[in-house]
Design brief:
Helix content: 40-55%
Radius of gyration: 19 Å
Order of helices and strands: HEHEEHHEEEHEEE
Amino acid sequence: MSRFRNAGVVGLAAAFLSLAAATSTADLAHRKFARIETGKLAAGTRVDLSVAELSAWASDEARLYAPGAVRNIHLRLSDGAATGSMLVDFLKLHQAATGEAPGWLMKNLFAGERQVTVTGRFESRNRRARVDVDRVEVSGVPIEGATLTFLIDNFLRPTFPDVKVDEWFPLGFHMDRFTVSPVGVSVYITR
């Protein structure tokens, strides 16, 4: 009996350590973003964010912005590109973004969690950046081309008006550019 109790204690301790590590990783990412957002970093400064930090930060932000709407976020980076996968409850996400209760159509088409995978490319230079969404999969169904453009224009932009997709936008906080690589994102500061 004591072996089972000890195994339970060890399992519980491992769960707490895992949670503490994720929290400290998210806290580290939040501190790095806060340093950038002060706008006071010296020219030539480079701030590196690891894949683990970005994943923990994204999970933390999702919990704050839309509790219960997005979970199990996983990021995979490559040179100039990223793929993110997550479970999304579109009804909760819509309600968090707009404050409105979903209508009949939304309830019937989007009820429950869906596995969502988004693949995009990133470019930045001269204090400007661009994010191009190449592909979205919802529950394994690919959404590309004109259908993807339609969803971006008619769902994403109205729900999240500050999001810039498929267009150049200015970088703030004295950022000159950022690079995306398999190990993370590096942000370069200029004056």
